[in-house]
Design brief:
There is one protein chain. Helices cover 33% and strands 18% of the residues. The strands form two sheets. Strands 8-7-6-9-10-11 form a six-stranded parallel β-sheet, with helices on both faces. Strands 3-2-1-4-5 form a five-stranded parallel β-sheet, covered by helices on one side. The chain is built from eleven helices and eleven strands. β6, α6 (164-175) and β7 form a beta-alpha-beta unit. The protein folds into two domains: 2-117, Rossmann fold, CATH 3.40.50; 132-300, 3-Layer(aba) Sandwich (Rossmann fold), CATH 3.40.50.2000. By secondary structure, the chain is an alpha/beta fold. It has helices spanning 11-16, 18-27, 64-73, 110-117, 132-141, 164-175, 194-206, 219-226, 238-246, 259-262, 288-300, and strands at residues 2-6, 32-38, 51-57, 80-83, 98-100, 148-152, 185-190, 211-214, 231-235, 250-254, 269-273.
């Protein structure tokens, strides 16, 4: 069985699509997948079982990236084409079945919209794939010892970034005397590039003993590292979704983006919203004390299956 799966250019949306892929793999054990995805997010699928081919999509003027993709997939007869980008390409291919997600904003979580495209209910929880090499590297970076608090102080939009001093206060509340992770080590994660480093630098400066992993890992390595952490707290970002997909307790921080659409989904995951209009609140309106309280309560909760 041959399946073409066209997914997002963004890491977070790509991670959210892994649940339905995992569902399809379980339903069709003989299936082989071709994944078309934005280059920045291709690492989400690099260690995916049943992967036949990974096609990175690089946006071009006049929609020419779609023509380039069509040329690579047009001469295969597909059993199923899933298009989460809502393009016309699915209708221009030989396919026994097509599932095309309609575009535009609408109420409900993005995970639910993805699952509805294939008629799957409840929406399957995202997963994270990594292999033995990534596990070995993660163990070298985070050897056995005290638990690790992972912080994600970066995002792709400056308004989504929680103030650095709040991350520092949070780290003190959680890892200091009486904290839920008393004595824990701290790791700081972020993507590559100067902007990510600039966002993370004040947190790294304020936590001189932290493990600096900003821009140093590919996505399967990030997933392996996350899986070794006791807790992740970070801005609304691809790293937040990847952390939740590993099953690591995950706290996502939301202000100017809608948690109703993009809250982290995992066995133990929650969104903490800044005070103000949902989806339009300043990140500065979210206190470190409140985040610490929510994180502590999350750590006390058992892992549960999530229905969206």
């Amino acid at each position: 069985m041959r399946i073409l799966f066209i997914t997002s250019t963004r890491i977070g949306d790509a991670v959210l699509s892994t649940g339905v892929i995992d569902h399809l793999m379980r339903a069709h054990p003989d299936a082989r997948f071709t994944i078309a995805v934005g280059r920045v997010a291709e690492g989400v699928f690099a260690r995916m079982p049943a992967l036949d081919r990974l096609i990175p999509i690089e946006k071009k003027k006049y929609g020419l990236h779609w023509l380039g993709l069509w040329r690579q997939v047009a001469f295969t007869r597909w059993d199923l084409v899933v298009d989460l980008r809502g393009s016309a390409i699915a209708w221009l291919l030989l396919a026994r079945r097509r599932a095309v997600m309609r575009g535009g904003r609408r109420p409900g979580h993005r995970l639910l919209h993805i699952a509805q495209t294939l008629g799957i209910s409840p929406a399957p929880r995202p997963v994270a794939w990594f292999g033995p090499e990534e596990s070995a590297k993660a163990e070298a970076l985070i050897p056995p010892g005290p638990p690790v608090l992972a912080l994600g102080p970066t995002a792709n939009w400056v308004r989504k970034v929680w103030p650095a001093d709040r991350f520092l206060t949070l780290a003190r509340l959680l890892t200091g005397p009486g904290g839920a992770l008393e004595g824990a080590r701290i790791a700081v994660l972020g993507g590559p590039g100067a902007q990510e480093h600039a966002m993370a630098e004040p947190v790294l400066h304020g936590l001189p003993g932290a493990i600096d992993l900003v821009g140093q890992l590919d996505l399967p390595e990030v997933a392996a590292v996350m899986s070794r952490c006791a807790l992740f707290v970070g801005n609304d970002s691809g790293l937040m979704h990847l952390s939740a997909a590993t099953g690591t307790p995950t706290v996502g921080l939301f202000g100017p983006t809608p948690a109703s659409e993009y809250a982290p989904i995992g066995a133990r995951a929650l969104a903490v919203l800044a005070k103000g209009p949902p989806g339009n609140a300043p990140m500065g309106a979210l206190s470190a004390t409140r985040v610490a309280e929510e994180a502590t309560a999350l750590l006390a909760r058992p892992a549960v299956e999530v229905a969206v």
